[in-house]
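Hello again,

I reread your note about wanting to compare the complex against the isolated chains. To keep things tidy I'm splitting this into two emails, and this first one only covers the full assembly. Below are the input lines as submitted, including protein chains and any nucleic acid or small-molecule components. They are followed by the predicted structure of everything together. The single-chain runs will come separately.
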Amino acid sequence: MDILMLFAIGLLKAAIVVFLVMLPGAVIAVYSERRLAAFIQMRLGPNRVGPFGLMQAFADVAKLIFKEDIVPAQANRFFHTLAPLIAVTTTAALFAVIPFADYVMIGDTRIDFTVAPNVNLAILYILAVSSVAVYAMTFAGWSSGSKYPMLGSLRSAAQMISYELTLGSSLIGIIMMTGSFNLNDIVHAQANLKWNIFYQPLGFLIFLVASFAETNRAPFDLVEAEPELVGGYHTEYTGMKFGLFMLVEFVHIIIAPCIIATLFLGGWQPPIPTFILNAIGIQEGSIIMALLQLGSFAAKVLFMMAFFIWVRWSLPRFRYDQLMNLGWKVMLPLSLINIIITAVVMFLLK
Amino acid sequence: MANINTNTRAQKMTFWERIYLPEIAKGLAATFKQALQPKMTRSYPEERFEPNGSYRGRPVLVLEESGERCVACGLCSRVCPALAIEVQAAETLTRDKERYPEKFEINMLRCIFCGFCEEVCPEEAIVMSKDYEMIYTNREDAILGKEKLLVPMAQLQDRLEYLRSHQYYEPSATA
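Full-complex prediction:
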């Protein structure tokens, strides 16, 4: 295959991921967020638009498109417009390295279910790209020329920097066990139900909490604490620019479960040992195998997404000092302890 | 500022409460249980709320077979705290009922559904109905005249029975 062909396939995959994973994912996230919230509050939730209210997200978007796009007089127009674009781009870019399934062989051609297969520093890529997202919020807050967005964005910057450390160091245990930063290798190492959650329970817990903070979800949604900050960093946004921030927020509860599922829940590995699959004639690289892998990955992601929503509607918001205490005095030491425990156990088992 | 460092509730927490996680699990269990409870809301236009006799909805005039009950005494208009009722009396030709309301208007923009009109009425002629769907697209429509206020007695049985079983005064012997 020449380089042009590779480029074309990559572009096609990117388009498929954006239009068949990210946007429908956001739609599912919007719907399930609103419905689950309603159920927890003993309400019915949106059930008007389409069957069971399934078209609610499309109605929301249609409304936002027809809204006037207002840039406040005090705002810096360039950065005000740039911020939602950065937010969307960085979030969409995270999907590039997520392995949705292994691969299929069509004839002699091997097609990987990853936009960028075998990136050997995929974990670092995820951490790096997700930390760029803080610029979106900082720009949005600063360029709005209003005090509430400013406060929200300052909080977000502090919060993301504090939790990024923990996020990274909680993964070192996995990287030590697998010996690779490559997400495909990490998923392959979790075959036969050897999921990392069983080997790294502390690491999983820390990563889970840190990813709540990183995605600015409750109980760490200080960035947009409605009672204190009106709407946080997107207070001064209207129309589709606001819609983009909302899209990002809902894509976050798709992408964070994707990363958690890949790293800790066995990624696309079906919860059936490989020898059973081989015994019933499902071979690696076949289309049935790929569908099975896609299905189990989707199931894991949807389960984690429901968990994210469930947590949001259960726990009250942290206070800012509690957030910082938890991040620096509890989570970071715990993640370091996790590294030491992993190292000691690995040394003893060698 | 004296007690800024003495958070007694935080000091009384046990070890398990301090590490949050069991408490978080308890909270999650509570919300999960809540999600399985029957819903408190309903799909409104399809599933309607059917009030019982004690419900104070739109005030209406009772219409018997022989005609309206109202004798246009004007007590409801007098007692109305929101000044929503306007009554104009006229004479009848019959002897048993000498007056009738020539004009009876309730301004639903003013009505506060207190039920004083019903309470004060000596003839049980104005009662609160079960109607809670009051939609008006302009102010004129919200002023209801007699043609909209008169409701056949059969439709008001629940309320009339409720009123009789909850009377706080002796019905006058001469009524």
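For quick reference: The mean pLDDT of chain A is 84.

B.
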